[in-house]
Amino acid sequence: MYPAVNEAVIRSIEEGISGSCSLMVPCPAAGHAMELLRRRPEIPFGVHLTMVCEMPRLRWGPLAARERVSSLLDETGALYPHHRIPELLARARLDEVETEFRAQIDAVLDAGLRPAHLDWHCLADGGRADVFDLTLTLAGEYGLAVRAWLDPARERLRGRGLPVIDHGFLDSFSFDPDGKAERYAELLRTLPAGLSEWAVHPGLDDAEARAVDPDGWRVRSGDHAFLASPQARELLRQEEIVVIDYGMVQRAWAGGLRRQPRGRGPRPPHAGAP
Predict the structure, then answer these.
(1) How many whole angstroms from its chain centre is CA 194?
(2) What does the pLDDT look like over 176-218, one tens digit per residue?
(3) Per the domain annotation, does 243 fall within a domain?
(4) What is the pLDDT of residues 211-254, one digit of tens each?
């Protein structure tokens, strides 16, 4: 979205406990993000498929030509904001969703980058069953994993022998910024056995962040402060939590799709992927 987010994401992986990140290709600072990733090919990242622009002070539009994706745009020719997602889902044509999704994935590949997974911005599991199915098809074509958070999508993928999270999905925007570090510490101490995933949103506290993201900068700054802290690393050591990344998940998806097993494999004893 903006450089302070990009910098904090990289620090949270290189210096902290985060495992992977997602790239929003249509956003203003996407070029900066891709350059950071290009210099760090060891960082696993996904394409955060984007059809929503929820920040009125920081606008972005589709990557495809507007006349090719008109059903994804509101009456002003812009991407729908967050509070109008139901309208977007009611009128979005699947062929135009595919056009935009392919444009975003191909832009990443054309930049010389190799993503590990696909997920969706503001649309859990794609928002519609046919969008979810489309994303699975694209993932198979491009050799990527897919992040699925909700049932029945998780059960469907488990039935295909593909790894998905075992527990409820954590979104850091659901927490009050005050006392967040203590809350995170408590959750790590009580993390259940199996595969968990935390969607965290690190960002640096600078003047641009406060100007363009007045409702989000405190969430992002608090996330970064905890993720990159010695306390977080020590908690992982004490609780014997193994942080995995989406490069590993991508490899498991590739093997699972080849084998098409009927059951689930063994779970790591205490794993998480912040």
Answers:
(1) 20
(2) 999 999 999 999 999 999 999 999 999 999 999 999 999 999 9
(3) yes
(4) 999 999 999 999 999 999 999 999 999 999 999 999 999 999 99
Q: Which amino acid is at 199?
A: A
Query: Does 272 map to a domain?
Result: no
In the chain, the number of structural domains is 1
Residue 120 phi, psi (nearest 5): -130, 140
Q: For residue 146, what are the domain limits?
A: 3-264
What SS3 string covers the chain? CCHHHHHHHHHHHHCCCCCCEEECCCCCCHHHHHHHHHCCCCCCEEEEECCECCCCCCCCCCCCCHHHCHHHECCCCCEECHHHHHHHHHHCCHHHHHHHHHHHHHHHHHCCCCCCEEEECCCHHHCCHHHHHHHHHHHHHHCCEECCCCCCHHHHHHHCCCCCCCCCCEEHHHCCCCCHHHHHHHHHHCCCCCEEEEECCCCCCCHHHHHHCCCCHHHHHHHHHHHCCHHHHHHHHHHCCEECCHHHHHHHHHHHHHHCCCCCCCCCCCEEEC
Q: How far is CA 271 from CA 34, 68, 175, 190, 196, in A?
A: 28, 43, 22, 12, 7
CATH number at residue 53: 3.20.20.370
Mark 150-178 as b/e (b = at least 16 C-beta within 10 Å). eeebbebbbeebbbbbbeebbebeebebe
